[in-house]
Write a structure and sequence with these properties.
There is one protein chain. The protein folds into 3 domains: 132 residues, Beta-Lactamase, CATH 3.30.450; 175 residues, 2-Layer Sandwich (Beta-Lactamase), CATH 3.30.450.40; 143 residues, 2-Layer Sandwich (Alpha-Beta Plaits). It contains 14 helices and 16 strands. α6 runs antiparallel to α8, α10 crosses α11 and α11 packs across α12. The strands form 3 sheets. A 6-stranded mixed beta sheet has the order 3-2-6-5-1-4. The chain is of the alpha+beta class. The protein starts with a strand and ends with a helix. It is rod-shaped, with a radius of gyration of 40 Å.
Length: 478
């Protein structure tokens, strides 16, 4: 276990010769009552330690620390600096913040923060230390710095924002990072949807018992994390059984010992899944492993939230596009859409030497229909005419609401004579609307073709002229 000692000086001037002898029952009872670790030593030996201090330092070898040499608490390479600090405190001087490294046992780490004060203990000059365990704070800070230095978070975020990676790719990137640094041998990603848990393992394995999906009410470790919901650490998941919950149901060799650390996946404050980190061996996750796993879990949650937000933005963009490009009343394309489409289509006609025919149509006597039957009926007539035109032409043909009661039909790869036959069919089908409305509905139209030499704009102008000629002819015959 590695012990780091961070020593901070309490900024209080002590008058020369003013000491308090703290070796008495009242002071010792007070030290025990405050809950902090309190340690007293002279220049060589630990003279007194509260139970809280002993709990912090006993991890050295599970023995008490009273009577130990202070050289056992501080690493050799830092011991000289620590002795200088002790001498300065005993001399009544202010001392700077000090960081020291103690000996290593089993590869574990413990960080403590101490505040030294000059006291008497049994008429002997000594240093009193208020001790606080700051392991988790230091480990998290160091882990975040480590992740930042490697640029993982920035890399993943940039890929998510650019759309280069889906969430599975993000998961695999994070697992590769964990594997390289020996943080985890395997990870599982669980998403909950409609009472079912879908599990994805990285690297991919064939799960036993429950497979890659199971119902939400199956009582495994994953369900426990979802039910609580908070992170869970289990030294060996195959020996776990609590409140009716058992192992995660994934495939390992019989007799394996697997440490498990699981974190609930929260998106927008809602628990939507679980991220599980697994490592071979009993109780093999260090404090730094767990701290990094927490940060990475937050990164996955953030990635999912970002992807969800980007997906919603794309859907909203598509919805707004539909609003702008589709006529709200009739459902056919708007003139705005046609203006954008026309440029690309004209280029195609030039490039391929093909022909497209434009038909501009206008509902006969539409103003009279509105005046006689009201605008609601008029709107319904517009909708029915638009629907009839769409159903009378091919799926590849473009139908546009060009004006109030004017419709434009573009027929790609169709010549003018063939377009005339198509429009005869359209007129016939529109005529059947009399059965619904009880009055005649007809259209006047003009037909003109566009090609490499005749632009769509010119064709539209010609079609418009022919349409009005037909309308005038009908009025003369009326």
């Amino acid at each position: 276990m590695v012990f780091y000692i961070v020593l901070g000086v309490k900024r209080r001037r002590v008058a020369e010769g003013t000491y308090f002898d703290v070796k008495n029952g009242i002071c010792e009872a007070f030290f025990e009552s405050i809950g902090y670790g309190v340690l007293i030593h002279d220049s060589e030996t630990v003279l007194y330690a509260t139970k809280a201090a002993s709990r912090i330092f006993e991890a050295l070898d599970n023995k008490g620390i009273k009577g130990r040499k202070i050289s056992e608490l501080v690493a050799e390479r830092y011991f000289k600096d620590y002795v200088n600090l002790v001498e300065s405190v005993l001399a009544g001087e202010r001392s700077p913040l000090f960081q020291g490294l103690a000996r290593t046992v089993d590869g574990k780490e413990k960080w403590v923060e101490v505040c030294p004060n000059r006291v008497l203990y049994g008429q002997k000059e000594a240093v009193l230390l208020f001790v606080r365990d700051v392991t988790s704070e230091v480990v998290v800070k160091r882990s975040r710095s480590r992740i930042h230095e490697l640029g993982l978070v920035q890399s993943v975020l940039s890929k998510v924002m650019s759309g280069d990676e889906d969430i599975h790719s993000v998961e695999e990137s994070i697992f590769k990072y964990c594997e390289d640094l020996r943080i985890a041998d395997m990870m599982c990603f669980v998403q909950v949807s409609r009472g079912r848990c879908d599990v994805r393992y990285v690297p991919n394995i064939t799960p036993r018992r429950y497979g890659k999906c199971f119902m939400r009410n199956v009582r495994v470790i994953i369900s426990l994390i979802l039910d609580i919901p908070r992170e869970v650490y289990i030294p060996n998941m195959f020996e776990f059984s609590s409140y009716g919950y058992s192992d995660v149901g994934c495939s390992f060799n019989a007799g394996s010992e697997i440490s498990f650390f699981g974190v609930p996946l929260k998106v927008g404050g809602k628990v939507e899944g679980v991220i599980g980190f697994m490592k071979r061996g009993y109780n093999t996750f260090s404090a730094e492993d767990i701290a990094i796993a927490r940060v990475l879990s937050g990164q996955i949650s953030l990635s999912i939230s970002l992807q969800k937000a980007l997906r919603e933005l794309a859907e909203e963009k598509e919805r707004l596009y539909e609003i702008a490009m589709k006529d709200a009343l009739t459902g056919v394309y708007t003139r705005l859409f046609f203006n954008n489409w026309m440029e690309e289509h004209q280029e195609m006609l030039k490039r391929r030497g093909e022909v497209s025919t434009c038909v501009l149509a206008d509902i006969d006597n539409f103003k009279r229909i509105n005046d006689a039957y009201g605008h609601l009926v008029g709107d319904e007539v517009l909708c029915r005419v638009a629907k009839t035109i769409r159903s009378s032409v091919r799926g590849m043909d473009l139908v546009v609401r060009y004006g109030g009661d004017e419709f434009l039909v573009v027929l790609p790869l169709v010549r003018k004579d063939e377009a005339g036959r198509i429009m005869e069919r359209v007129v016939k089908n529109i005529g059947t609307l009399r059965d619904k409305f009880g009055f005649d509905i007809g259209i006047s139209y003009g037909i003109a073709s566009a090609n490499a030499n005749v632009s769509l704009v010119e064709a539209l102008k010609k079609a418009d002229e022919l349409m009005y000629e037909m309308k005038r002819s009908k009025k003369l015959l009326a």
